[in-house]
Every structure is written in C-alpha cells, then in structure tokens.
C-alpha cells in the first residue's frame, strides 16, 4: 500500500559485519493520496513525515561535523531566505547619521518630551458604554504605563474631551474602541498639537488568559524597547510610543515594555527579567498582550472630518506585494 521495501539488509551480515539498521525506503514516486484506506493513508503519512524529519536531522548533524572538522576554513553559514530579508527597497528608510532626520526630530511635536521639558501624563478612555473585557483591558494597560489615568466617556465626543485634557496638562489621549465586546481599535492623540494615530487592534490577551504568567506588575517604571521602526513613518510611530513613558535613556529596570514591529504588525509584550544567577537570566510575561496595525497617521489632534492625514493605509494600493513594508 505504498510502503515500499525495507532495502537490502543481508549484505552486511554476509560480510561478517553487524546487520544494518532497518529503515523504511519510500519509492521516489510515493504519493500518500494514492492509498484508498483512510486509516492506512494517515498511518503512512505520519511514517513518511517521521522519515523526513530523521533525514533532515541527519543532514544537519553531518554539516555540523564537517564544519567542526574544517574549523576556520569552514564556509560561512547560509542565510535563510525570509520575507524580512527579501524586503523591497524603501527610499524612506532612515540613516542614523542623516542630518535632515536629526533636524526633524529636534523640531517635531515630540521634541519637548525627548528634551525632558514635559513629563508624560496619559488619559485612557474607551468608546461609549464599554463592556467588561474592554474595561479590564484599560485597567491593566494603566498598570503598564506610568502616570496614566482611566476615565470613561459617558457619551462625550472626543472633540470635547481633548480641550479638557489639554487644560488638565495631559500629554496624550488613548482611546480603546471595541466591537462585539472585544477591543478592536486604538487611537493615540499626542497633545496639544498632535499627531494622531489610529491602529487596528487584535489578539488581545488579558493577564488571566496568559499561561505561566508572573505575579502582578509593580509600580516601578518599565524599560521601553522599540524594534524595527526603520522608516520615516516608523520613526514617527516609535517616537509616539516612547512618549507614553517617562524618558530616561540610561534607565535599566526589571520590567520591560516591548513594541516589536514585524511586517508592519506591532506586537506588544510586557515582561519581567528573572535573574537566576550572575550569568543566567530568564523572562516572565506579565501581560496584557496585543497586536497593532497602523491604519492612519493624522496631523494635529483627532478630527475625523476635516483632519489632514500624513499617511493612510490603502489596502488595494499598498498591499500588492508581501515584501513591501511601510514601518
């Protein structure tokens, strides 16, 4: 039923050597789909996959032994092809030594924060009549971001909330939107002059839904890590995330908030370092976790009708290639 023969096994024994180990040899034209019996077909597929894994592992061990034997003369390791390293060239990728970029960052809306002239003060609110999951998410998010306060909308429009936030010295407004009782959107508006970013939110996991999570986070300020925000647009988004936390470039703490950009999806994780010894360290996830996808970046504060947009995600125009990224 497609199993093939077990190969010649008598030659080694006839020569006086030890018998060769039994190994299943599938014919070159072997196809699982030709087997009519469903149970037999499933069994032979698992057997074929097991043989493939063994052959792959044996080839890997062989290559490692060859590299060890050659020592310094060994050829460099092949770099695997991924979507990231085959990324299409983007002319907006930032050079760290670019004087124009440095000038823009010294004069943009986030410059007072990075110059330590302002201290972040965040207002977290929701859409109208939030459900329990969104409420719990906002409460947990407020324990991640220092000096953040949760208030509920009570029917107020954002255009009325923003002047009140500015009058009370809030530096940022975060709005958690929901659909069918699940958080599905995030709006961050930097006060008083913008910009405003709108993200689609997905894969939200609260603390109780994370396996092997650590104890509740403490009130210590977390260290912030921003990964792979390489373009001009990515720099703006990364600076917006950084401005939510107190700015101290030399700060090192046990709690870490990470914004990791991969293929324009921003993964947020909140961890704690566990120092096992002077040389060994582990990480322990504290939660919550979520994933963001940028939908638009708007100049100024939130204005859905008359606002001027710096960037809008247009799926049919921008998602024509899997290797084209914008952040």
TrEMBL record:
GO biological process per UniProt: maturation of 5.8S rRNA; maturation of LSU-rRNA
Q: Disordered: where is this region? A: 1-31, 50-81
GO CC terms in record: nucleolus; preribosome, large subunit precursor
Which domain of life does the protein's organism represent? Answer: Eukaryota
For this UniProt entry, what is the primary localization, expressed as one broad class?
A: nucleus
- Where is the protein situated, by its record's location annotation? Nucleus, Nucleolus
Name of a matching Pfam family: Brix
Which Gene3D superfamilies did the record assign?
Probable brix-domain ribosomal biogenesis protein
GO MF terms on file?
rRNA primary transcript binding
Q: Where is the Brix domain?
A: 120-303
Q: Where is the composition biased (Basic and acidic residues)?
A: 66-75
Which key words tag this protein in UniProt?
A: Ribosome biogenesis, rRNA processing
The record, for PROSITE patterns, names: BRIX
Q: Which SMART domains match?
A: Brix
Q: Does the keyword rRNA processing apply?
A: yes
Per the record's keyword annotation, is RNA-binding included, yes or no?
Answer: no
* The protein's role, per its UniProt record: May be required for ribosome biogenesis.
The protein in question is named: Ribosome production factor 1
Organism expressing this protein natively: Podilymbus podiceps
């Amino acid at each position: 039923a497609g199993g093939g023969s077990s190969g010649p096994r008598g030659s080694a024994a006839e020569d006086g050597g030890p018998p060769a180990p039994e190994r299943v040899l599938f014919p070159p034209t072997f196809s699982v789909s030709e087997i009519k019996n469903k149970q037999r077909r499933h069994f032979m597929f698992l057997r074929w996959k097991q043989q493939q894994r063994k052959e792959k592992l044996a080839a890997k061990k062989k290559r490692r032994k060859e590299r060890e034997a050659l020592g310094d003369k060994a050829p460099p390791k092949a770099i695997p092809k991924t979507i990231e390293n085959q990324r299409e060239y983007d002319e907006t990728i930032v050079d760290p030594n670019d004087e124009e970029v440095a000038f823009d960052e010294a004069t943009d809306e986030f410059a007072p924060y990075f110059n330590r002239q302002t201290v972040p003060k965040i207002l977290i609110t929701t859409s109208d009549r939030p459900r329990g999951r969104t409420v719990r998410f906002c409460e947990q998010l407020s324990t991640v971001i220092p000096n953040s306060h949760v208030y509920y909308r009570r029917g107020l429009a954002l255009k009325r909330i923003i002047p009140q936030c500015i009058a009370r010295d809030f530096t940022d407004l975060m709005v958690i939107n929901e659909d069918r009782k699940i958080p599905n959107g995030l709006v961050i508006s930097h006060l008083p002059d913008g910009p405003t970013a709108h993200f689609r939110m997905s894969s939200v996991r609260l603390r109780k839904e994370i396996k092997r999570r650590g104890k509740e986070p403490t009130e210590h300020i977390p260290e912030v890590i921003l990964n792979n925000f390489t373009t001009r647009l990515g720099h703006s988004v990364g600076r917006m995330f950084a401005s939510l936390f107190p700015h101290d470039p030399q700060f090192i703490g046990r709690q870490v908030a990470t914004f990791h950009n991969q293929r324009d999806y921003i993964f947020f994780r909140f961890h704690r370092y566990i120092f096992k010894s002077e040389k060994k360290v582990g990480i322990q996830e504290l939660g919550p976790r979520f994933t963001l996808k940028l939908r638009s970046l708007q100049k100024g504060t939130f204005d859905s009708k008359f606002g001027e947009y710096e960037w809008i995600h247009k799926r049919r125009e921008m998602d024509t290639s899997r290797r084209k990224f914008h952040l």
